[in-house]
Each structure stands twice: as C-alpha cells, then as structure tokens.
Fold this sequence. Notes:
The chain has about 270 residues and is mainly α. It is built from 14 helices and 4 strands. The strands form 2 sheets. A two-stranded antiparallel sheet has the order 1-2. The protein has a two-stranded antiparallel sheet with strand order 3-4. The protein is elongated. The model has no long low-confidence stretch (mean pLDDT about 90). This is Defective in cullin neddylation protein. Keywords: Ubl conjugation pathway.
Amino acid sequence: MAPALTSQQKNATTEFVSVTQADPRTAQKFLAKHGWNTSAAINSYFSSSSASSASNPTRKALDQLFDKYRTNPKDSPNELDFQGAGELLEDLEIPLDDVGALVFFELTKSPQIGVIDREGFAGSAALLDAHADSVPKIRNYVLARRAELGRDWELLKRVYNHSFTLLIEERRKAIDLEQAEGFWRVLFADDVWPWATPRTPWLEWYLDFLKNKWGKAVNRDLWRQTLVFAQKSKEDESLSFWSEDSSWPSVIDDFVEWVKTEKRGGEAMEE
C-alpha cells in the first residue's frame, strides 16, 4: 500500500493536474521522479508529451514555438503572459489593436486579452489541421481568416463572442462601455464588417445613444444581441423586423425608439 501523501504533496498534485490536465496518478509519478518539485515535474511532463507526439510534428513544432515565447517558464510553463503574447504578435506582425489579434485570440481560445495557454496554442485543432507550425505559416493562416470575416458569418460570430471573454474581469458580469466601444470599432471597421447601410451610420448612432442616453456597462447578453441586431439592421434598415413584443434587451428597444423619434424625425418605419 502506497504511503499517504503529505499536505505539501497533495497541493503539488493539485497544481500539476490543474496545469497539465493529467490524471492524479500521472501527476504523482512525475512529481515523485522530480522530488516533488512542481515546476520541474511540469516541464518534464510537457517535454515528454511533445516527444511522444513525434507522430504529429506540427504539435511538436507548436510546443517548441510556445516555449520560445514564455517569460516565466519555471512558474508558468504552460502560459504566455502579456509580454510573451505581445512578442509573439509582434513577430506575427499583427498589431494588438487590429481585428487580426482578436482572430488569433479566438483561434487559440485565449482566456483573456494578452494571455495564451499551451493547449489553446499548441493544441489548436485549426493550426494542427492547417500544419501551421511556424510564425510565417501562422501569420498567413490568421490573415486568411481575417479576410473571411466579412463573408463568413459563423467565423465573425465566434470571433465577436469570444472578444467579450477577453475583456471580462474576474467576478464581473459586464465590461465598461468604453471598452465595448473600442472593440466594436475594431470588429465593425470598414475593412472587416461595417455596420452601416446607405442612409444609416448604425454604429455611430448606436454609440451616440449608449454614451449619451444610457451610459451603463455592457453585459454578455447585450454584447451578443448587439451583433444579432446589427445583422438584422443591415438586412433591413427600416427596422420592420423589430416589434414591441420582440425579446430584445430593453436598451435596444430604447435605441429603436430613439432612432425613430430623434434621428428620423418621428417618421413611420417603412414596411
């Protein structure tokens, strides 16, 4: 019968499992081998995982590329912090304030802006399938997806919805209106997916209304429903799809009334 673990060993096991997603038995095997030094055991685990995946050279190359950009390999062996992620984006020649960065963060399932974990990067199904195993190949893949945003609705929706995750802080349910505006201007830029129709600059009107008539934070539901409303308003700028019985967030209901009365002079909506 194996001896009971000490509290320190139990904590080390918990940390190892949290970082690597391995089972406790595997965790204890690596930890015991490295004298219960958590950082050394985790590094050893990832090194052996990369070696055992030699049949997938793309994964191995992505693991090695990930290691190159770590700034704290001892304490955070499977995470790129803001500095490391920023250096990677710089080498990819993708500005942080460009929608291409949001595409990249969605592709790697980044948990927050400027943070990338190993599995999200090296284990990205899209990068693995595309054999994007180097900085130039990753750049080309991200830029190709960026170019598709205006034509691929599902891709745009994924990038858009994930963007809220990048901004939301722990224990908060909403993001500041100023933050939301910054991301909306990136996602609805003219060269991405412009939210405007021949006689209506929808994005500018929406931001004007939110800042001057509403002024509150933006929760996840409003963030998502804004994209749905944007799509429908581009298809039908008369807003005939809207009715008082619809289940839109109340702020969008108020925005529609504001458009009717203050921007269109009380004119009747076209049928």
